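Backbone-to-sequence.
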């Protein structure tokens, strides 16, 4: 007794019955978190549907919930679906420590936070950014950073930002040094840790962000919900059948359907472009 995933939209509304939303193991998933996450998503979307607003859809780069829904709305799973971190390709972006940063704009938009929570999180974000700037400006003498200093043979001093980027150096190494600068650093360990993580992994995070931007470009190539694939010349019958069955909402989603090749996407992309121009 379950609803096949290809009959569910990424908003968790069923394709056959408008206004009917499914969450949890009825969608072929197993697990407490899997069910709870979908319950939240389906609940928000049911309200948005009543209010005739656009659905709330998280993509694969924003949350594990987005990865899960995308996985089973583009693939036919034969086993109950469980969410594992290995299923996400943007794991560096989907960290536990930045969950609030990723999802805060939505929590605010859908009124899931009280005024006090909004204010305290915005203060935390502002303080983190201010601390990053201070780490950038404050300079420490090479002689004061022990063995790590030997890596900087031609310099007398480096910024705390550079120091934090060194392998093996953590905020715990930096904390005892903070008293000696003219800048007053935050006394909140949470703020300092957030700033240190941002600095330490900035290069990797920027690289992942470039991949996410490419991914978003494909996600933004939307496909109308009632799009007909039957008359697309040059598209394999197997691809036509799969697209008709899953009814992907974007080129990105279409490309992730099992058995779909880059060639199928190229044909679909050209046809979609022509279709959009005709509609215009
Ligand atoms: C023995 C066991 C151990 C498990 N252990 C774990 C674990 O350790 N960790 C983990 O993450 N997951 C575990 N799971 C899986 C997890 O419990 C489920 O995947 C999850 O609870 C499903 O949540 P759900 O809301 O989709 O469904 P359910 O929790 O089954 O909720 C469905 C609800 O609908 C009600 N209902 C059914 N029909 C009707 C009707 N006609 N009218 C009104 N109400 C109705 C039911 O009474 C029930 O309350 C376990 C499952 C089992 C069976």
């Amino acid at each position: 007794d379950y609803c096949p995933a290809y009959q569910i939209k990424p908003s968790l509304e069923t394709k056959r019955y408008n206004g009917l939303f499914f969450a949890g193991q009825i969608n072929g998933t197993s697990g407490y978190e899997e069910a709870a996450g979908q319950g939240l998503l389906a609940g928000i979307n049911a309200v948005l549907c009543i209010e005739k607003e656009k659905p709330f859809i998280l993509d694969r780069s924003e949350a594990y919930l987005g990865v899960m829904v995308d996985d089973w709305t583009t693939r036919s799973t034969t086993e109950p679906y469980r969410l594992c971190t290995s299923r996400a390709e943007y794991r560096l972006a989907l960290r536990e420590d930045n969950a609030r940063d990723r999802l805060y704009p939505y929590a605010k938009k859908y009124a899931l936070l009280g005024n006090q929570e909004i204010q305290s999180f915005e203060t935390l974000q502002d303080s983190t950014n201010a601390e990053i700037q201070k780490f950038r400006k404050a300079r420490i003498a090479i002689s004061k950073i022990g063995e790590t200093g030997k890596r900087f043979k031609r310099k007398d001093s480096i910024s705390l930002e550079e120091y934090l980027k060194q392998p093996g150096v953590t905020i715990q190494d930096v904390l005892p040094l903070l008293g000696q600068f003219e800048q007053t650093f935050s006394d909140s360990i949470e703020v300092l840790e957030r700033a240190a993580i941002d600095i330490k992994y900035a290069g990797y995070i920027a690289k992942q962000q470039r991949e996410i931007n490419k991914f978003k470009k494909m996600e933004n190539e939307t496909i109308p919900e009632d799009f007909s694939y039957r008359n697309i010349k040059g598209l394999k019958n197997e691809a036509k059948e799969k697209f008709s069955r899953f009814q992907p909402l974007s080129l990105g989603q279409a490309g992730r359907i099992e058995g779909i090749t880059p060639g199928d996407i190229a044909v679909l992309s050209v046809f979609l472009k022509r279709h959009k121009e005709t509609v215009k």
